[in-house]
């Protein structure tokens, strides 16, 4: 029997309406905001090749975690300061017509009893939605941001992110990844540290740890110690004690093929001091490799200056001077535990990782060399 043709309005089939989302605009701006224990940092950027081009930025010391150690709560004053900074960020998002953004809060909000109230307060006052991210995601994004700085000769990589309220350490085995592919292998970690089974060699996360001590929280713990050098030694010793559960801590590592990348205000400030920069220049700092002797020399110089001298030193800056010794104590502990000839300085971190992750997920970055 021959098929019958329908009659009337339904004679021609209706076009199928696809529910697939529109592909993202490859030049549309993206935004990332990192609200930490001490600082509020924001970037607006556009995809450009395998990386991105920053079109606007903002950074301010808001001291959100001020008093948190004692009370367990975010204070009204610190929340008010933070909201003022977030209003500036909101204005920049509107100026650049940003539609794709990720705004995150870290250790201070993870620990504060009134963090959820604060998130609602921010939403009500600014319209911005902050996400409190877990330590693993914070560590993962810091690692991803450092991918362009990974050497083709690196087989064992330690990425250290010294924050205001916590310090993340991630140890990665790259020995099975061909040298030219190592940076891309790091980028793939934005989906998770559990790399699973893949047909191509992958970066293997040996271990990672989030130590609930950063430049602000470590400083607060030892603020009652009056002697400057004594306080520094105690902070460094105490931080090293917190690494006992980090599996690579107990094993001696070969220097050949080993790279440490440090990302934080502490690391970039030490680098700027080493270079003698009276005005900070990211192009001279990001990617700089410092020897352990050079780092020790800078830290000894900080101790010789004393509190008054550090306060007046233009290489340190007003926002960083009160926190530089606690950060230096963490840095010195790390260089003592894993003796190495070089530290790679990264002026990049959570914000850059957030941008890379968003752009990679949207497929707007070229899969080319860094």
From TrEMBL:
CDD domains per the UniProt record, alphabetical: ASKHA_NBD_AaPPX-GppA_MtPPX2-like
Ppx/GppA phosphatase N-terminal domain boundaries: 44-360
GO molecular function, one term: pyrophosphatase activity
SUPFAM superfamilies according to UniProt: Actin-like ATPase domain
Descriptive protein name: Ppx/GppA phosphatase
Annotated source species: Tropicimonas sediminicola
The organism's taxonomic lineage, starting at the top: Bacteria, Pseudomonadati, Pseudomonadota, Alphaproteobacteria, Rhodobacterales
């Amino acid at each position: 029997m021959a098929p019958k043709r329908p009659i009337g309005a339904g004679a021609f089939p209706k076009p199928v309406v696809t529910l697939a989302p529109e592909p993202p605009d490859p030049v549309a701006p993206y935004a990332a905001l990192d609200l930490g224990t001490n600082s509020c940092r924001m970037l607006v950027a556009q995809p450009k090749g395998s990386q991105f081009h920053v079109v606007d930025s903002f950074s301010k010391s808001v001291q959100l975690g001020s008093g948190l150690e004692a009370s367990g709560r975010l204070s009204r004053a610190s929340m008010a300061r933070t909201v003022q900074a977030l209003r500036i960020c909101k204005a920049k998002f509107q100026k650049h017509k940003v539609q794709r953004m990720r705004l995150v809060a870290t250790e201070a909000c993870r620990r504060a009893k009134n963090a959820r109230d604060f998130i609602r307060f921010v939403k009500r006052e600014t319209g911005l939605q902050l996400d409190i991210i877990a330590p693993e995601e914070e560590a993962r994004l810091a690692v991803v941001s450092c991918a362009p700085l990974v050497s083709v000769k690196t087989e064992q990589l330690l990425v250290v992110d010294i924050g205001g309220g916590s310090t993340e350490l991630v140890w990665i085995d790259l020995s099975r990844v061909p040298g030219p592919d190592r940076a891309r292998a790091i980028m793939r970690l934005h989906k998770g540290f559990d790399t699973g089974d893949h047909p191509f060699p992958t970066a293997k996360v040996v271990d990672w740890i989030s130590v609930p001590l950063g430049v602000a929280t470590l400083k607060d713990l030892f603020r009652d110690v009056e002697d400057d050098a004594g306080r520094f030694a105690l902070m460094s010793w105490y931080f090293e004690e917190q690494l006992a559960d980090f599996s690579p801590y107990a094993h001696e590592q070969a220097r050949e093929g080993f790279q440490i990348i440090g990302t934080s205000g502490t690391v970039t400030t030490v680098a700027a001091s080493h270079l003698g920069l009276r005005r900070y220049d990211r192009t001279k700092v990001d990617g700089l490799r410092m020897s352990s002797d050079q780092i020790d020399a800078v830290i000894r110089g900080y101790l010789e200056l004393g509190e008054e001298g550090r306060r007046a030193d233009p290489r340190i800056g007003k926002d960083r001077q009160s926190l530089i010794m606690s950060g230096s104590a963490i840095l010195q502990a790390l260089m003592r535990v894993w003796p190495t000839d070089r530290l790679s300085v990264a002026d990049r971190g959570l914000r850059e990782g957030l941008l890379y992750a968003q752009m990679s997920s949207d497929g707007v970055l070229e899969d080319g060399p860094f």
